[in-house]
């Protein structure tokens, strides 16, 4: 950039493309090489666009898309989180504050917020899409909250969404971090409509000139069958157990091969993250708003930031890529009640306070 080039406004970011066309405000996450992973400036840019368009009579609906062919958004920039946590910094907590506030804004947005959840949609990508009023999936959608695999807990309102899925399906997805496709996203309440990926450009064009319901009616189709409906019986029975240890025991004793495979998966996840996730998920079921859930998640996130497993999990999965995290404590039995309780204790720098806002 030339030295005399004007600086970008503080509420703009080159990785978030915003424009209006017809009756729609179009937002595109534009970091395709990183599967559009969210940075703090991107979060601020999204929030600023939504604030600007909320009272703009020319914008009847907002459409969120991801650049490239790989997905809407792979989540937050976890390498940056790793580096900040190792350095004992404050940047990640500040990022989460703004990210969770954005999630709440999306959920309460006064206009249709249409999220095109094509391809990979994970972690923070779920946060900027699944709280919207119109969630569109495709045959390429791969949706997950994979946090326990990196020593973290589901956040961005993920526990609120998963805690309200039918039966114990959300508990299963939160603990395993498993990916689901279009039909299972519809079943669990993470999405509303299925549209073929090849029709997304046409749908977007129609959204710029037609009411949302009319545009969707032109393109919505039935998805291919999922797998969760047929697994619902053993999932509900096993995940209703009061502790992670008993959940694992029930899965192993169920006599169902898929359940045993699930137990094996759980035993590769961070033991601390598993127990903390179950505690937060069940605490969130007792609150009455997304904002209250985000407040609880912020506590758990900040606790994980100062623990061992988050840095180690990101190291193993993303930095060194040896896929061999050394969790500490290493087993479920070694995780104490105090280890879990610190994830629900007030955050050191103060809670978000969203529920009372």
From TrEMBL:
What is the superkingdom listed in this entry's lineage? Answer: Bacteria
> What does it catalyze?
3-hydroxy-2-methylpropanoyl-CoA + H2O = 3-hydroxy-2-methylpropanoate + CoA + H(+)
- Family matches, as Gene3D superfamilies: 2-enoyl-CoA Hydratase, Chain A, domain 1 (3.90.226.10)
Instruction: Tell me its EC number(s), please.
Output: 3.1.2.4
Q: Does the keyword Hydrolase apply?
A: yes
What is an example of a GO molecular function annotated in this UniProt entry? 3-hydroxyisobutyryl-CoA hydrolase activity
Q: Which CDD domains match?
A: crotonase-like (cd06558)
What's an example Gene Ontology biological process for this entry? L-valine catabolic process
Q: Which Pfam families does the entry link to?
A: ECH_2
Enoyl-CoA hydratase/isomerase domain boundaries: 25-343
Q: Which UniProt keywords apply?
A: Hydrolase
Show the InterPro entries listed in the entry.
ClpP/crotonase-like_dom_sf, ECH_dom, HIBYL-CoA-H
GO CC aspect terms = cytosol
Q: Do the record's keywords include Hydrolase? A: yes
Name of this protein: 3-hydroxyisobutyryl-CoA hydrolase
Organism per entry: Streptomyces filamentosus
């Amino acid at each position: 950039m030339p030295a005399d080039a004007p600086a970008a406004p503080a509420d703009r970011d080159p990785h978030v493309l915003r424009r209006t066309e017809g009756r729609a405000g179009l937002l595109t996450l534009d970091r395709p090489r990183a599967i559009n992973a969210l940075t703090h400036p991107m979060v601020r840019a999204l929030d600023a666009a939504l604030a600007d368009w909320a009272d703009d009579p020319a914008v009847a609906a907002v459409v969120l898309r991801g650049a490239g062919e790989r997905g809407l958004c792979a989540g937050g920039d976890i390498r940056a989180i790793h580096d900040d946590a190792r350095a004992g910094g404050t940047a990640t907590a500040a990022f989460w504050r703004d990210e969770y506030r954005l999630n709440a804004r999306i959920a309460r947005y006064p206009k249709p917020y249409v999220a095109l959840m094509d391809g990979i949609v994970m972690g923070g990508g779920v946060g900027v899409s699944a709280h919207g009023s119109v969630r569109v999936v495709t045959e390429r959608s791969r949706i997950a909250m994979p946090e326990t695999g990196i020593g973290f807990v589901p956040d961005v309102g993920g526990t609120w969404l998963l805690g309200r899925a039918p039966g114990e399906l959300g508990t299963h997805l939160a603990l395993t971090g498993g990916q689901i496709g279009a039909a299972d996203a519809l079943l669990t309440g993470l999405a509303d409509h299925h549209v073929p990926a090849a029709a997304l450009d046409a749908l977007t064009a129609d959204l710029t000139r037609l009411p949302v319901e009319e545009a969707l009616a032109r393109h919505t189709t039935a998805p291919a069958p999922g797998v969760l409906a047929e697994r619902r019986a053993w999932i509900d029975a096993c995940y209703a157990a009061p502790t992670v240890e008993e959940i694992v025991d029930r899965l192993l004793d169920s006599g169902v091969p898929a359940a045993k495979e699930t137990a094996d998966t759980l035993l590769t996840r961070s033991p601390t993250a598993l127990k903390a996730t179950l505690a937060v998920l069940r605490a969130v079921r007792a609150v009455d708003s997304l904002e209250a859930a985000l407040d609880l998640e912020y506590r758990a996130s900040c606790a994980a930031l100062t623990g061992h497993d988050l840095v180690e999990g990101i190291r193993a999965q993303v930095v060194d890529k040896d896929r061999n995290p050394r969790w500490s404590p290493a087993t479920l039995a070694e995780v104490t009640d105090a280890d879990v309780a610190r994830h629900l204790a007030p955050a050191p720098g103060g809670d978000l306070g969203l529920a009372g806002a």
